[in-house]
Design brief:
This protein is an all-beta fold. The chain has two domains: 148 residues, no CATH class; 229 residues, Sandwich (Jelly Rolls). It is 2% helix and 28% strand. The strands form four sheets. Strands 6, 9, 10, 12, 17, 18, 19 and 21 form an eight-stranded antiparallel β-sheet that branches.
């Protein structure tokens, strides 16, 4: 037997509390200021984070600053932002290419690979501690640049061309999960159904990201709640990343987070939070062209089991090429790999039976638990991007 949000704000939750080395700009603000943002005149805003005298300072004016710095998470050297404070709405964040991405809101700036580049003016509103006062308006300096991971990589922003499915499950009622990916052909909304005997599917306020999740209640093999998914053979035919927050509420083996296939004997790709092949009940990912033959399975398995009644972030990355090394991440950290893999979603063909919460095998139980923030990318995210995705709350 054998998955208001705002692109530029990373759901308003990417954590920048861990300081990143700052650039060499001049200090600004009185000692002990948590966040200084000044945006007057032609030179644009000056951002300084907490420290003895605002020691992470970048002058947004003048030529673009691209210090060598340290990569994400956190803003690179030359644009360091510490914890605390916030940027008001209305200002535009420029992407790493310097284009405008207006509408920043939330608690902190996403991580960035560039310094301050030309772009939109500083926003109005927001607050700042220390001598900087309120955020000014009308400065002509550039907005902060972002790394690829923050501008549509791990952030899952609407402009990311590789994010092909994104179910936030933030609906409070109804039986359809909206697709927030924003790519060509979107939305690919997902019906949520109860099937069989004693199964149930509903949105729940028990969540990890956003406001809600989807709650799926299984009744063994007799019935359960199911999210109907589209096939990935054209959406992510080669390299792919699948990621979701999972709250497993039952210790029954072989439940499914997701299962893409066309029946138990045919090609399939699935993730179970609990297998029983070795009595260790580990997380297992399988992709195979012949579901009825375990000998043909290509498997990635976690190093340890996950705990019940707790949220865990599970992600699978399958790079392009053949052979390649697939990786299973648990809570932002690589937990298992397989360097002899060859199969991709395109090899499965059109997977007419693709689900969350249900297996291709009629003898496998339906999932009892919750799923939140399910995403599919048509590329293999890096370890840094997976860690940033895990940090989203």
């Amino acid at each position: 037997m054998s998955c208001s949000y705002d692109y530029a704000a990373l759901n308003g939750r990417l954590d920048a509390s861990s300081p990143t080395p700052a650039g060499t700009g001049g200090a600004s603000g009185a000692p002990g200021g948590v966040l200084d943002i000044e945006a007057g005149g032609a030179d644009g805003g000056v951002v300084s984070s907490s420290g003895a005298r605002g020691d992470q300072v970048t002058d947004g004016g003048g030529p673009e600053v691209n210090g060598p710095g340290v990569d994400a998470p956190g803003i690179e050297r030359g644009g360091g932002l510490g914890s605390g404070g916030g940027l008001g709405t209305g200002g535009g964040l420029a992407s790493s290419m310097g284009s405008d991405a207006s509408g920043l809101s939330g608690d902190v700036l996403p991580s960035g690979s560039g310094g301050f580049g030309p772009g939109g003016a500083s926003g109005t509103g927001g607050t700042a501690s220390g001598s900087g006062g309120a955020v000014g308006s009308g400065g002509s300096g550039g907005a902060a640049g972002m790394s690829a991971a923050a501008s549509g990589g791990a952030s899952g922003g609407a402009t990311d061309p590789d994010l092909v499915l994104w179910y936030k499950f933030d609906e409070s009622t109804g039986n359809v999960a909206a697709d927030a990916s924003g790519v060509a052909g979107a939305p690919r909304n997902a019906p949520i159904v109860s099937t069989g005997l004693g199964g149930k599917a509903a949105f729940s306020t028990l969540h990890q990201v956003g406001t809600h999740s989807v709650s799926l209640t299984g009744n063994g093999i007799l019935g359960g709640g199911v999210v109907m998914l589209p096939s990935l053979d054209t959406l992510a035919p080669g390299a792919v990343t699948l990621a979701a927050w999972v709250y497993e509420a039952s210790d029954v083996d072989w439940q499914r987070v997701f299962d893409f296939g066309s029946g138990y004997a045919g090609p399939q790709m699935f993730l179970t939070p609990r297998e029983d092949k070795d009595s260790k009940h580990l997380v297992r990912f399988v992709i195979t062209l012949l579901g009825s033959s375990t000998a043909s399975e290509q498997i990635i398995q976690s190093a340890q089991a996950i705990s019940l009644n707790a949220w865990h972030h599970l992600a699978i990355t399958l790079p392009s090429g053949s052979p390649y090394k697939g990786t299973l991440y648990v809570d932002g950290v690589a937990s298992g790999t397989n360097a002899a893999m060859t199969l991709h979603p395109a090899d499965l063909g059109f997977a007419i039976q693709s689900y969350m919460g249900k297996s291709q095998f009629p003898t496998d139980p339906y999932l009892t638990g919750n799923i939140d923030d399910f995403r599919v990318y048509r590329r293999a995210l890096s370890a840094t991007e997976i860690a940033a995705l895990y940090a989203v709350r």
